[in-house]
Amino acid sequence: MGTKQRRERERQAIRQSILSAARQNAAEEGWQAVTTRKVADRIEYSQPTIYEYFENKEAILLALLHYGYEQMLQAMQQATSRTENPEERMLALSEAYWDFAFTSPELYQVMHGLGGVSFGQPDAPLEAKQTFALMRESLQSWAQATETDFPQLDDGVDALWGVVHGLASLAMDRRIAQGTERARQIMLHTVSDLLFAWRQQNP
Predict the structure, then answer these.
(1) CB 71 within 8 A of CB 100
(2) How many folded domains does the chain comprise?
(3) Can you spell out the DSSP letters for 43-73?
(4) Which of 32, 54, 76 lies at the terminal end of a domain, its last residue?
(5) Are 124 and 141 members of one domain?
(6) Helix-strand-coil percent breakdown of the chain, rounded to 5?
(7) Pair 73, 170: CB distance under 8 Å
(8) 20 and 107: one domain?
């Protein structure tokens, strides 16, 4: 390996350690308490070193936002590839979204401005648009398979996203009685009920 390649690998490793440290600090103290100084202390580098990779805390959050959407998209793609049944795909998609939120809560908070995250988020990143497109494509496949007339498909996607994201956000904030598992069951039942109601519109 050449010197240039080795240096690039080292830079990528340090960059990744900065992002990991920020997530770890957030898990322990919340995003409001995360600072570049605390990140530097955790990885045992000087604070100026952090600024060689990220201009400020907001730049770290933006990098994590993109990474989070990439990871969520992959999880949802994998979930939909496991079955050909259109309704099972919709439920698998919803479960994958939910599972990502609770296995990677720090990323999920950054992606949606939760948990004390406060920074000016840019327009929806490409990965977020791809996630919406996957949900839209899956719902369209379901509608075609069930011969359901869906003139406003995007309304359906927003309704499903509202159910899953809304309940996930409330459960993450401990606002659903009896905890996360009950909220998850409510989410799955509601998605199933929505699909059933939409089918009934086209007897």
Answers:
(1) yes
(2) 2
(3) HT--HHHHHTT-SSHHHHHHHHHHHHHHHHH
(4) 54
(5) yes
(6) 75, 0, 25
(7) no
(8) no
Each residue of 124-138: pLDDT tens digit? 788 889 999 999 999
Domain residues for the domain of 91 are: 62-200
How close are the terminal C-alpha atoms of the chain, in Å?
Answer: 65
Residue 111's Cβ-side half-sphere holds a number of Cα atoms within 13 Å equal to 24
Q: Rounded distance, CA 146 to CA 129, Å?
A: 26
What is the crossing angle of helices 153-172 and 180-200, to 10°? 170
pTM for the full predicted model: 0.90
Amino acid at 108: Y
Q: Tokens 């359906």 belong to which residue?
A: 156
Amino acid identity for residue 92 in this structure: A
Residue 163 token pair? 């159910």
Which two tokens mark 69? 């959407």
41 and 76 belong to one structural domain = no
In single-letter form, the type of residue at position 24 comes to: Q
Tens digit of pLDDT for each residue in 46-79? 999 999 999 999 999 999 999 999 999 999 999 9
- My answer on whether 70 and 132 are in the same domain is yes
The 3-state secondary structure of 140-199 reads HHHHHHCCCCCCCHHHHHHHHHHHHHHHHHHHHCCCCCCCHHHHHHHHHHHHHHHHHHHH
146 with 68: CB under 8 angstroms?
Answer: no
Q: Are residues 25 and 70 in the same domain?
A: no
Shared domain for 41 and 66, answered yes or no, is no
